[in-house]
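Q: My labmate handed me this sequence with no annotations at all. I'd like to see what the chain might look like in three dimensions before we decide whether it's worth expressing. Could you predict it?
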Amino acid sequence: MARIVRARDYRWDVPIHEYKTEGTGFRAIHRQTLLGDNEGEERLNFITRYFEIQPGGYSSLEHHEHPHSVVVIRGCGEVVLHDRVEAIGLHDCVYIAPHQWHQFHASRGEPLGFLCIVDRNRDRPQVPDDSDLEELRRNPALANKIRV
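A: Here is what I predict for the chain of 148 residues:
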């Protein structure tokens, strides 16, 4: 059945969840699944989620097979995007290609909120092992930014 998920102050009429239930490579982040997981939305081939990172927080450093798109709708920050760090802000769109390391940071003293659209059927994120981290930290652009 068609519906509207109402929002107020960057909160929607759906549950707020922990970002992840396993691991420690993230800080001060939560998520809401807006579309795709609710009854009657089984035919959507994608999931629309909202993530919000508090100042000083970050998402996990990861990569996976599935691509996804991100649209910043609150604040600004930075994203580790494969081999570089880019500033991101309101209304910026980020394409994350398959198998590209990525990590979002609310590093500008304000919350960073973004919509993230992914395939309904997707693989599990892969986090870096020690050799991956050693290689990533050889890149001066990443060495002081990535968090695990």
